[in-house]
UniProtKB/TrEMBL annotation:
MF (Gene Ontology): transferase activity
Pfam families: Glyco_trans_1_2
InterPro entries, sorted: GT-like_domain_containing_1 (IPR051862), YkvP/CgeB_Glyco_trans-like (IPR055259)
Residues in Spore protein YkvP/CgeB glycosyl transferase-like domain copies: 202-309
Name assigned to this protein: Glycosyltransferase involved in cell wall biosynthesis
Extent of the signal sequence: none
Keywords: Transferase
Transferase listed as a keyword: yes
């Protein structure tokens, strides 16, 4: 029998409630394995402390898509600038560390090996790339026909430093000048001079679309663009791929792992050129989109990722 503990927004009171319930569960109904999904709040080390205090000797498996030990994960350095070594402690206290990509496993290996070789000797053998499941049933429930008008180019990243939204907006002005494309911005974007220069009749602002409306918007779109410098996997991009949207991605992070080489670009000049070409040529656009869609749905289905996680849980439970 499995139990799920968690939820909420990460506030201190919520963390305390999670740890209290976790401690009660260990005593009342000890599990075979503890799986902590994206264990940054509460810290995995706190889960291990509760386990030790309760006398629970079973394994702890943590599952994360971000770490201070990925140098490009700017969010963690901006929000928690002094927690890099605490973050390493989170990784070290787990029996297995599930990560979302082979690239992330390699990044952790490189960074921890350089800073703390003895820690890396323990950590690296525990790393297990398993991917991350997409909610394909919910994505498919929102399916609708692709918009028949001029191609829609979607930007569905959060407006944070590591995603470089300003790069997209600066490029978008030239794209609209040279093509009939329209833009869809799915997230709430703070006012900025780049956005103000774009033709409002050709820019759709989603303003943080509700999930089902967001998936429907991806089905209607034609091209998705990423300008990120940090991507341990690329969930927003994979969601777009799963809807048959043609995605163009920088050659960074895990992106080469999730798509074919002809979807990758090296600089914004190349990105603009590719966008202009794909807006005007539907057949190459549809071909790339079909390949990405098939690949994504096979690799990141809930069934495939769950099977990979289950294999690791069986490994430590033996």
């Amino acid at each position: 029998m499995s139990s799920v503990v968690g939820g909420g927004d990460g506030r201190t009171a919520w963390v305390g409630a999670v740890l209290t319930e976790f401690e009660r569960m260990l005593v009342m109904r000890p599990p075979d394995v503890v799986l902590a999904f994206h264990a940054f709040w509460p810290f995995t080390v706190e889960l291990r402390r509760v386990m030790d205090d309760a006398g629970y000797g079973g394994p702890l498996v943590t599952y994360t898509h971000g770490s201070h030990w990925d140098r490009t994960d700017l969010f963690r350095f901006e929000r928690y600038p002094r927690l890099a070594w605490a973050d390493l402690g989170n990784l070290m206290c787990a029996d297995r560390v599930l990560v979302v990509s082979r690239w992330m496993a390699a990044a952790l290996t490189t960074e921890v090996s350089a800073a703390a070789p003895s820690a890396a000797a323990e950590l690296v053998p525990r790393l297990r790339p398993v991917g991350l499941p997409l909610d394909l049933p919910r994505i498919d429930a929102a399916r609708c026909p692709q918009d028949p008008g001029p191609p829609i180019v979607v930007f569905n990243h959060a407006p944070v430093t590591a995603k470089r939204p300003e790069v997209f907006f600066e490029l978008a002005e030239e794209l609209l000048r040279r093509t009939p494309a329209r833009l869809l911005i799915t997230r709430r974007i703070p006012p900025n001079p780049f956005l103000g220069r774009l033709d409002p009749d050709r820019v759709l602002l989603g303003d943080d679309l509700p999930v089902d409306e967001y998936y429907a918007a991806l089905w209607k779109a034609h091209i998705q663009v990423s300008t990120a410098i940090h991507e341990s996997l690329g969930v927003a991009t994979l969601e777009a791929m799963a809807t048959g949207t043609c995605c163009l991605l920088p050659r960074v992070g895990a992106y080469p792992e999730i798509t074919d080489p002809d979807a990758l670009y090296d600089d914004t000049g190349e990105l603009l050129s590719r966008l202009v070409d794909l807006v005007g040529r539907p057949e190459p656009r549809r071909d790339l989109a079909a390949r990405q869609m098939a690949r994504t749905r096979a690799a990141y289905s809930p069934e495939r990722v769950a099977a990979a996680v289950h294999e690791v849980l069986l490994e430590v439970a033996r």
